[in-house]
């Protein structure tokens, strides 16, 4: 193949990747995706309740930092699925555009067709991570890329230091744990380099200061005890042991779980290539590649916590990003092979789907219609979504709180998690909150049990604190409804 043919094939690859990225951008902006009835619903509820004047960690609980709720609920007062979709898609695409612009300014276009094509494919995948709101992942990718570019310098300028600090604080408001791990990675790199690289030392200092400022603001604004309980203790100590999964099977229909093993093998291969190339590296190259090898490890705990393909996506994203940046510095076919192995399984996710404007909101309305018709016009002052037995469950249909969106939740525990409602301590707290809730209270009680996972949920038992209250307290049933293929009894607690 001559040079002109090779250049044409690279341009064709870039055009195909650009088409894929534009398609998934339209898919995201148009709201063609579907919010999950648990994670997606909890994020939407957070924005909605904040816009109503309720306080996170007090009136409603969430293991997420308050950034999205402050942005949409307090500042912009966006209280709709459509508004949420438009705003977050705009922010996500803006971050991606800045990243691509910075990449172009650094490496140009002449020799970067393949790298830019890979980046567009990767960002298409990140847009699929909708229910998790990819802003924190994209922001941290951009921050890490800027730190990577600044390694060549003697140190960070005042503007760069302040930019790094502000970006760090912003990320903490969206996701604190990955920012904490990224800060640890920079600390380890500085220890390995013994502080010789001032740019990295300055980067760590800016991240540390930004992290402390953001955490202090959250703790001061929401109360240290409540923040620590919801953001640290509950997700790590209480529900963490019930959520961890062993390494997954990859038999159909779980074939995508092979991504967990593929990403691990690619990282080992990547590290081996870098070590074999070490003798030909300059001192600056070594610092760059140490950074590129360290960055993917920031998302390793998230992957190991629940070893399935969905929780592998952030690790895959940053690993592939690291590989792309490595290929921009050294031409090694083995790196391109590693990228191909990593990205190939994702094409099943990137197969074309129909673009249906506002599909996400339409599906929610369809799933809530049955229950909404049953309680329309019934006087009530609070709402609760629970279940008849907490002996065997994984999560609740939090979307049902939108059946009567004008009502506050009867309990702050709007998310049901193994380890919480089934425990004596938190079960008693929820029962007390239900007892003190403003009446009449509408309760959607899920009937039946859910299929347990291959972890601690298989042997868990309930302390029956909530069940006892729901059965003993005065109430009457007004019928049943269905939502997301689950049956519910509707009760009124006068």
Protein architecture, described:
There is one protein chain. The model has no long low-confidence stretch (mean pLDDT 88). It is built from 19 helices and four strands. The N and C termini lie far apart (79 Å). With 494 residues, the chain is mainly alpha-helical. Strands 1-2-4-3 form a four-stranded mixed sheet, with helices on one face.
Short summary:
This protein has 494 residues and is mainly alpha-helical. It is built from 19 helices and four strands. It has a four-stranded mixed sheet, with helices on one face.
How many DSSP helices? 19
Number of strands: 4
Tell me the helix content.
55-70%
Q: In which order are the strands of the major sheet placed?
A: 1-2-4-3
| Sequence of secondary-structure elements | HHHHHHHHHHHHHHHHHEHEHEE
**Beta-strand percent range:** 5-15%
C-alpha geometry:
globular
Q: What number of domains?
A: 2
Query: What oligomeric arrangement do these chains adopt?
Result: single chain
The secondary structure category is mainly alpha
Mean pLDDT: 88
Instruction: Give a short account of the largest sheet.
Output: 4 strands, mixed
The unreliable regions are none
Walk me through the topology.
Layout: H1 3-29, H2 39-51, H3 67-75, H4 81-107, H5 113-128, H6 135-150, H7 158-174, H8 176-192, H9 198-222, H10 224-238, H11 240-243, H12 258-276, H13 283-294, H14 300-305, H15 309-327, H16 333-343, H17 359-375, E1 382-387, H18 424-436, E2 441-446, H19 465-472, E3 476-483, E4 486-493
Parallel strand pairs: 1-2
Antiparallel strand pairs: 2-4, 3-4
Give keywords.
single chain; mainly alpha; 494 residues; 4-stranded mixed β-sheet; 19 helices
């Amino acid at each position: 193949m001559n040079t002109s043919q090779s250049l044409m094939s690279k341009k064709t690859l870039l055009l195909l990747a650009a088409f894929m990225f534009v398609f998934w951008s339209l898919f995201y902006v148009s709201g063609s995706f579907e919010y999950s009835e648990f994670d997606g619903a909890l994020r939407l509820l957070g924005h909605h309740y904040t816009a109503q004047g309720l306080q996170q960690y007090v009136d409603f609980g969430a293991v997420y930092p308050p950034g999205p709720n402050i942005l949409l609920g307090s500042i912009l007062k966006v209280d709709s699925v459509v508004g949420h979709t438009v705003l977050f898609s705009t922010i996500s695409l803006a971050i991606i555009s800045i990243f691509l612009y910075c990449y172009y300014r650094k490496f140009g276009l002449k020799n970067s067709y393949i790298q830019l094509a890979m980046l567009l494919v990767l960002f298409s995948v990140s847009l699929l991570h909708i229910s998790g709101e990819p802003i924190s992942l994209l922001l941290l990718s951009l921050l890490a890329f800027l730190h990577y570019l600044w390694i060549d310098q003697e140190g960070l300028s005042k503007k760069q230091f302040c930019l790094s600090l502000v970006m760090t604080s912003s990320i903490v408001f969206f996701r604190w744990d990955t920012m904490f791990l990224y800060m640890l990675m920079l600390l380890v790199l500085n220890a390995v380099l013994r502080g010789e690289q001032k740019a990295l030392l300055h980067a760590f200092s800016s991240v540390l200061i930004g992290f402390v400022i953001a955490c202090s603001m959250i703790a001061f604004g929401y109360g240290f005890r409540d923040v620590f309980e919801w953001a640290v203790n509950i997700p790590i100590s209480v529900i963490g042991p019930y959520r961890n999964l062993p390494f997954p099977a990859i038999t159909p229909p779980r074939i995508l779980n092979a991504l967990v093993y593929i990403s691990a093998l690619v990282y080992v291969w990547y590290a081996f290539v870098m070590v074999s190339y070490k003798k030909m590296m300059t001192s600056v190259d070594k610092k760059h590649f140490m950074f590129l090898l360290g960055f993917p490890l920031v998302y390793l705990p998230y992957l190991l916590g629940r070893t399935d393909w969905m929780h592998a996506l952030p690790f895959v994203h940053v690993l592939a990003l690291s590989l792309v940046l490595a290929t921009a510095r050294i031409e090694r076919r083995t790196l391109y092979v590693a990228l191909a192995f990593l990205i190939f399984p994702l094409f099943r996710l990137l197969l074309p789907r129909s673009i249906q404007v506002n599909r996400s909101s339409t599906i929610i309305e369809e799933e809530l219609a049955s229950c909404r018709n049953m309680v329309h016009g019934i006087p009530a002052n609070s709402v609760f979504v629970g279940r008849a037995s907490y002996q065997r469950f994984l999560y609740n249909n939090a979307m049902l709180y939108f059946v009567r969106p004008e009502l506050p939740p009867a309990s702050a525990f709007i998310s049901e998690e193994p380890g919480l409602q089934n425990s004596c301590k938190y079960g008693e707290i929820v029962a007390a909150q239900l007892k003190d809730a403003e009446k009449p209270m509408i309760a959607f009680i899920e009937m039946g049990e859910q299929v347990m996972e291959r972890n601690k949920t298989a042997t868990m038992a309930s302390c029956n604190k909530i069940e006892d209250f729901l059965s003993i307290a005065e109430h009457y049933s007004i019928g049943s409804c269905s939502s997301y293929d689950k049956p519910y009894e509707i009760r009124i607690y006068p």
